[in-house]
Amino acid sequence: MTADIESIRRVGDKVEILDQRKLPDIVEWITCDTGAQVREAIATLAIRGAPAIGIAGLYGLWLEAARLTDQEQFLEKLQVSAQTLRNARPTAVNLAWAIDQAMNQIAGWTAAKAVDHLRDMADALKKRDEQDNRTMGEWGTRLFTGPVGILTHCNTGSLATAGFGTALGVIRSLHQKHWIREVFVDETRPLLQGSRLTAWELEHDGIPSRLVTDSMAGHLMASGQVDAVIVGADRIARNGDTANKIGTYSLAILAYYHHIPFYVAAPISTFDPATTHGDQIPIEQRNGDEVRTVLGKPIAPKAMPVYNPAFDVTPHSLITAIITERGIAQEPMEHALDTLWQKM
Ligand code: MRU
Q1: Residue ID of nearest Cα to ligand 1 atom 10
Q2: Three-state DSSP state, 186
Q3: How far is CA 260 from CA 17, 24, 160, 232, 318, in A?
Q4: What is the set of active-site residues?
Q5: How does strand 180-186 pair with strand 209-212?
Q6: Extended beta strands in the chain, E state
Q7: Gap from CA of 73 to ligand 1 centroid (Å)
Q8: How far is the C-alpha of 97 from the C-alpha of 106, rounded, in Å?
Q9: How confident is the model at residue 246 (pLDDT cuts 50, 70, 90)?
Q10: Least buried of 69, 92, 185, 319, by fewest C-beta within 10 Å?
């Protein structure tokens, strides 16, 4: 059903990235030969979404490793590229997680062996991510008993992952059971991942949905049309505090006030036990032009100062459950997440 929506693919010794900045109008692939090109694609959001940038980072590392011919300084040079790729975006832990894991595995290896391993690792992560999302979707359906109206934020679908999606994966699984009455899609200012990307994916799958502006969420919940909110995550701290696209925290407070369950869906690779509380999560600050413009068109005075955090943190006390591929975590969240983390 979703096989033809892909965010990244390896074609021989190159990596192709679907340019999400141009969607939904233009479907265009960027061909990358170097880690620097992949880094640029991540930083400028040609590819975005926590799991997808983890996979892209790993492919970028492989491309860089393949370009290094100096066996003597192979690992030292690759470490520099690893650091650059890792820092392309600071909030989603999946990027650092994938790169650190790869660098640890190839420590002390020859260049030839490391290059092949990095390629295989990236291919395997991509395959596994989609499988995990389908499992996560199955787990998510257990929280429901029949048709529901769902509100979602940003894009958490095939475009943000290797396929199927996290929060959107749960929505897809609910749709397969005929349990989606309607999905309300926040447009997700400033970069409109909801209206440009999620709406595109939902339309592609024929899932009943309507687009709303971010400011309509309160009215929508008060009108009784939302049975649950489901969002993704960029980093989940040890206590369950969750960083996700800016605006998520406001939705969680609105859901709490209206007694609507608030669910986070994310792979276990988004869990960061080294970060104990949400206030330790680095929040990416982006260029003010993203707020001063819409799709390149000015909507504010050119010199207007801007505050543009790309993410916010929702405290675990506002989260009804966190859905992962290993099961569902509920309060006491820290204990439940730790149990899932240990489970293989
Ligand atoms: O800035 P973005 O578009 O990368 O932000 C994406 C999100 O916040 C997603 O909700 C999150 O990465 C989960 S994607 C499965």
Answers
A1: 232
A2: strand
A3: 37, 31, 25, 17, 10
A4: 234
A5: parallel
A6: 8-11, 14-18, 29-32, 148-152, 180-186, 209-212, 228-231, 235-237, 242-245, 262-265, 271-272, 293-294, 297-298, 311-314, 321-324, 327-329
A7: 36
A8: 15
A9: very high
A10: 69
User: For position 69, what pLDDT does the model report?
Assistant: 75
Atom from ligand 1 closest to the CA of residue 244: 8
**If you compute the radius of gyration of the chain from its CA atoms, what whole number of angstroms results?**
20
> Percent of the chain, pLDDT > 90?
97
What is the reported pLDDT for 1? 45
* CB burial of residue 113 (10 Å; 0-12, 13-18, 19+): exposed
| 5 C-alpha to ligand 1 centroid (Å) | 17
Please enumerate, as own/partner, the contacts of 218-222 that have beta carbons within 8 Å and a separation of 24 or more: 218/254, 220/151, 220/184, 221/151, 221/254, 221/255, 221/257, 221/258, 221/260, 222/258
Give kind and range of the element (H or E) at residue 203. Answer: helix 199-205
Gap between the Cα atoms of 225 and 112, Å rounded: 57
Per-residue pLDDT at 70: 74
pLDDT, tens digit, 9 for 90 and up, residues 167-183: 999 999 999 999 999 99
Question: Which pLDDT score, from 0 to 100, does residue 318 have?
Answer: 98
Q: Which residues pair with 30 in a beta bridge?
A: 17
pLDDT at 274: 96
One-letter amino acid identity for 203? E
Ligand 1 centroid–CA 62 distance in Å is 23
Computed over every residue of the chain, the mean pLDDT equals: 96
DSSP 8-state assignment for residue 194: I
Identify the band that residue 72 occupies on the pLDDT scale cut at 50, 70 and 90.
confident
Structural domains in the chain? 8-133 (1.20.120.420), 134-341 (3.40.50.10470)
Rounded average pLDDT over 251-263:
98
pLDDT tens-digit map of 150-209 = 999 999 999 999 999 999 999 999 999 999 999 999 999 999 999 999 999 999 999 999
Tokens representing residue 90 in the block: 């600071």
- The fraction of the chain above a pLDDT of 70, given in percent, is 99
Residue 260: CB atoms within 10 Å: 19
